[in-house]
């Protein structure tokens, strides 16, 4: 049983690292690099966004949900108020991710309004995702 706990916690941490790390990479490396390249910026964001959306949004968020539920029972022994809070924030992140990827991001190539929406939805999503990491640390420490 201890191996299962370690395995699912490990998977959860790796998936969270991929999700949050990907957003940090996009905002701290890709965005500043493309800022001075308006001729390729929008198309590059579209291409990078499509790839990250598939693995980051759809695959990793789904697997984070599954591993989070498994960890809730294997490690925490069930739901506690702090886990309810994390789950609530998680669902907000999923909603914002879908709004970003399926609405604003897709239209950002052709619309300045949607580009601005995509930018701010991405920033909000990053902030809330960092909050999820913080809540995860608190839960793991027993709060």
Keywords:
143 residues; mainly alpha; 4 helices; elongated; transmembrane helix
What string gives the helices and strands in order?
HHHH
Oligomer: single chain
Rg computed from alpha carbons, rounded to a whole number of angstroms:
17 Å
User: How many β-strand runs?
Assistant: 0
Termini Cα gap: 23 Å
Biggest sheet details: none
Helix content: over 70%
Shape: elongated
Number of helices: 4
Membrane topology: Multi-pass membrane protein
Main location: membrane
Keywords: Cell membrane, Membrane, Transmembrane, Transmembrane helix
Subcellular location: Cell membrane
Note the topology.
Blueprint: H1 2-35, H2 38-74, H3 81-107, H4 112-140
Helix pairs in contact: 1-2, 1-4, 2-3, 3-4
What does this structure look like?
The longest helix is centred in the middle third of the chain and has 37 residues, at 38-74. The two termini are 23 Å apart. This protein has one domain (2-140). The chain has helices spanning 2-35, 38-74, 81-107, 112-140. The chain is 89% helix and 0% strand. Helix 1 (2-35) runs antiparallel to helix 2 (38-74) and helix 3 packs antiparallel against helix 4 (112-140). The chain has 143 residues and is mostly helical.
Structure, briefly:
This protein has 143 residues and is mostly helical.
């Amino acid at each position: 049983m201890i191996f299962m706990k370690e395995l699912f916690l490990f998977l959860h941490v790796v998936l969270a690292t991929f999700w949050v790390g990907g957003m940090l990479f996009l905002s701290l490396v890709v965005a500043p690099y493309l800022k001075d390249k308006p001729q390729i910026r929008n198309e590059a964001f579209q291409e990078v966004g499509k790839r990250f959306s598939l693995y980051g949004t759809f695959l990793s968020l789904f697997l984070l949900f599954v591993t989070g539920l498994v960890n809730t029972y294997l490690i925490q022994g069930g739901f506690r108020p702090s886990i309810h809070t994390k789950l609530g924030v998680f669902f907000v992140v999923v909603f914002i991710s879908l709004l970003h990827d399926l609405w604003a991001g897709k239209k950002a190539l052709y619309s300045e309004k949607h580009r601005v929406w995509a930018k701010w939805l991405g920033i909000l999503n990053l902030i809330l995702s960092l909050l999820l990491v913080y809540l995860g640390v608190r839960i793991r420490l027993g709060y």
